[in-house]
Amino acid sequence: MESLPLADRVARDIRDLLITGALVPGQRLSEAAFSERLDVSRNSLREAFRLLTKDGLLRHEANRGVFVSTPSTDQIIDIYRVRRMLECGALRQAWPKHPATTTMRDAVEAAKLHRERQEWREVGSANMKFHAAVIDLSDSSRLSDFYARVAAELRLSFGLLNDPEQLHSPFVDMNEQILGLVMKGKVEDAATQMDLYLNLSERTVLKALERAGK
């Protein structure tokens, strides 16, 4: 049985929708539609909206409603700064037989399958699962919970871009390389590869935003 209050569980469910790309920046969230979709009262939904607004994932506009936030360039840069600290740190203490490596492998295989089918949103979701599993290598529930909020902000930045193939496809193979290094016990090399990955990903996102004039 879950111990989280109802509003926190609803906030988590909405955060999961953000992480999978089911919600996009600027989208208006209808109270009526979401209370029915999530099978909760409007009061519980409003409290969940309040929690997510506090996290910066949603924004409330007077007389207009609640909208999915649109991350700024400065916020995106900060997201990648946090990712370097968390993901590279987790890899440096990784254990090849940690259960999270199975999740990492499953995520890589799922991403490769979706890439073959050119299902780019699903590729992005699989990549996100890979990186969440990297954080799970740390065996810290607090870090994993914190990273879920970071991941939701990250996925919002992806939603601003017009070329999902360029955004997701090249990084599937890099994830596989990182996993291979972890499985060989070369954790410092894995952390170095992750740093290269994040630098490339950040440049890709920022350049795409610049081209789009956002």
TrEMBL record:
Keywords: DNA-binding, Transcription, Transcription regulation
One GO MF term attached to the UniProt entry: DNA-binding transcription factor activity
Boundaries of every HTH gntR-type domain copy: 4-71
SMART domains reported in the protein's UniProt record: FCD, HTH_GNTR
The name this protein goes by in its record: GntR family transcriptional regulator
Source organism per UniProt: Agrobacterium tumefaciens
Taxonomic classification: Bacteria, Pseudomonadati, Pseudomonadota, Alphaproteobacteria, Hyphomicrobiales
